[in-house]
Amino acid sequence: MTAMAEKTNGKGSIYQLDKGKDGKKPKSKCRKWRLVVSLGKDPHTGKYRQKAKNFNGTYTQAQRELREFVAQIEGGNLVKRNGWTFNGYAKHYVDTRVAAGEIQERTANSLRGTLRALGYRIGELRLQEITPEVIEAAYIDLRAGESLSGKPLSGRTLYNINLSAYLMFQNAKEKGIVGENPLDKVPMPKKDTKEKESLSANAYSALISALDPTERFQCAVLLCATLGLRRSESLGLSWGDVDFANGTVNVHASTDDHAGLKEPKTEAGFSSPIHARAAGRRDHEAQGGRHALAH
Asked: For a disulfide at 157, which of 36, 88, 116, 153, Cβ 3.0-4.6 Å?
């Protein structure tokens, strides 16, 4: 269900409805509130407009509800009320993407891992209760070692967690489950691990020269290094993919985490024949590779 989006004037106000008989009941004891959001002056009537709703709960919960109320009004979305917790929706989100064929199982496992890491801190909270401040506090805890492993998480790991959580909340927002994506207001964690360096030309040549194509695993490394194959693609090769006469390899399959065959990761994986030998390699070396693949 949707409503027309409107511009609010400020962050809204919370009024205490239950002040006790003497009118001095503290906020910490009150459980009844009036949430009011100003929409500014109506250009046609000149009157000030507002939207309001009553809410039962603690003052902290009322603050969260007010932020969500503002987001609903500005976004034009009436948020669906449900009991989705972070952990529950994380599982649903990944499972539905796998079922729809959007991601492969290896990617799904990686996604589950990053969401599980954040879920260790906020997993039992309802999606509507998770604010930017809640996310930031969770990151501080994870940085300090309050994680599944009991070890401090690196900036790169938090970066990946942030990216996965952003996509999940964006999915929930598009479905009307939350009014806004809290990650929109959380700074992206900075990658603090050293970037991987590629081999120099000399180091690459030395590696190729040192590999023995008659050794099974070295042959796999040789294929990846000279053809630019992914590890899973080299493991998915069969004899029918190798054309020794023309020195080419056809990549038609990849492997999953359970050693089962699947389609290559991208359309580029269905490439035309790739030259199987590096320039200058002799035919008997290629034959040695053939022997290695057989084992």
From this structure: 153
Say yes or no to pLDDT of 291 above 50.
Answer: no
User: Minimal CA–CA distance to 104: which of 290, 257, 275?
Assistant: 257
∠ CA 122-105-124, nearest 5°, is 15
Return the closest-CA partner of residue 159 out of 122, 197, 195: 195
Burial 104-113 (b: 16+ CB within 10 A, else e): bebebeebbe
Instruction: Report which residue type is found at 211.
Output: L
Which residue bears the tokens 């962050």?
Answer: 11
For residue 264, what pLDDT band results from cuts at 50, 70 and 90?
Answer: low
Tokens of 263: 């389609």
- Predicted confidence at residue 281, as pLDDT, reads 38
- Band (pLDDT 50/70/90 cuts) for residue 259 is low
pTM: 0.51
In the chain, what are the domains?
Answer: 13-75 (no CATH), 86-185 (1.10.150.130), 201-294 (no CATH)
C-alpha span between 78 and 57 (Å, rounded): 20
